[in-house]
Amino acid sequence: MATNTRKSSARQARPEFTCTECGWRTAKWVGRCGECQQWGTVVEAAASSGPRTTAVAPGKVVALPITEVEADATTAGPTGVSEFDRVLGGGLVAGAVVLLAGEPGIGKSTLLLDVAGHYGREDRTVLYVTAEESAAQVRMRAERIGAMNPGVLLVSETDLGAVLGHIEQASPGLLIVDSVQTIASSEVDGLAGGVSQVKEVASAIIAAAKARGLPVLLVGHVTKDGTLAGPRTLEHLVDVVCQFEGDRHTPLRLVRAVKNRYGATDEVGCFELTDGGISSLVDPSKLFLSRDAGTVAGTCVTVTLEGKRPLTTEIQALVTDAVASNPRRTTSGIDSPRVAMILAVLERHVRQGMNRSADVYVSTVGGARANEPACDLAIALALMSSARDRPLRRSLVAFGEVGLSGDLRPVAGLQRRLTEAYRLGFNRAIVPAGSADQVSVPMNVIEADTLAQAENLAIS
């Protein structure tokens, strides 16, 4: 009996190891986490035989029937930047913490400084904490983008305690922190940007925001693969996570909500970044159309859906004789495997001899992305138009997913796509068979069963 008791107590006292990044647990120490694949994040944590927290008497907060809970606290107030409000679900909610992530130089600080300038014009105070730049550098940017406003309080600070002190002193209506990875607490070991520091900084700022009903905008860094840097718990702590996307070679910037406790996650905000600052794009579709759209061989127009938002996209293709033994396949804004699949389908079912003896180049206009299956038909028609050197019919748009057997499959959101195309002046559309009954747009909507049938209807 005594032997069994000692074995039981040894099992209870046996330590376990936990990943500080994702919380993964293991009985033995390993150098790399088996869940998130991060190195050096597994540390020893004493195993507990049971829960350590016991029930206590409830405090001032009393459980109420759900019908008696007030919903006014979740009312969103506009920031003054329409496209940003669209993504947030109408604006900022009191006490909400928003994390804006994006690559360096993409325009995160410019956007938030523009938000601060607009937000401070309504007799509201904005505290802008810059931990990466000096106050003079931020002022120069504010002068350039027209965000100079006496309601914006600017401070350059990297110590968490000092930041909390500025919040107590200023009592702002909005707090902007640029960025959460460059602020550190003197009470916690580790360098700024480490797991423990990021957790402490985020937790302290979130606690202050909830206690004061203070909306907070945090800037977050991203890793080389585009994911948010720092511990994964950071995304769980905040209320909203927004991703800032865009190509540095084009002025278009997209902001999409990855997580939103106060609204939908299928809204996308469009902005144009120029030397004079950043501005909202209420109608960005024209950025993705060239002046010769639909009038030269190798071009076809489609409409993509970014969340709920339809964006007109022009697909351009160039098919030319191969100059080497191995034909080239180059794409921009479109997935290469999807183009390779469409070329194989054309080779097999339409008898277009471009897969083996031709160089193929496919691109979008204006830096747009066309990665959804609904763009398959437009890519195929652009390729066939270029191979035959014959343009498509005027004012034509095309939607449809191409199957491996050469058939066309229906796509989602066809009504929104056709409505956007009609608004921009297109009067003819080719859609998969069985789709026309679902739409009511004053356009000539033509159905096609296969790629070969769509080619005969599209190419003049």
Automatic annotation (TrEMBL):
GO molecular function annotation: ATP binding; ATP-dependent DNA damage sensor activity; damaged DNA binding; hydrolase activity; zinc ion binding
Annotated RecA family profile domain ranges read: 73-222
Q: Gene Ontology cellular component?
A: cytosol
Residue sites binding ATP per the record: G102, E103, P104, G105, I106, G107, K108, S109
What's the superkingdom here? Answer: Bacteria
What residue intervals hold the motif RadA KNRFG motif? 259-263
Pfam families the UniProt entry points to: AAA_25, ChlI, Zn_ribbon_LapB
- What is stated about domains? The middle region has homology to RecA with ATPase motifs including the RadA KNRFG motif, while the C-terminus is homologous to Lon protease.
Query: Which family is this protein grouped under?
Result: Belongs to the RecA family. RadA subfamily.
- Please state what the protein is called: DNA repair protein RadA
Organism whose genome encodes this protein: Rarobacter faecitabidus
What gene name is given for the protein in this entry? Answer: radA
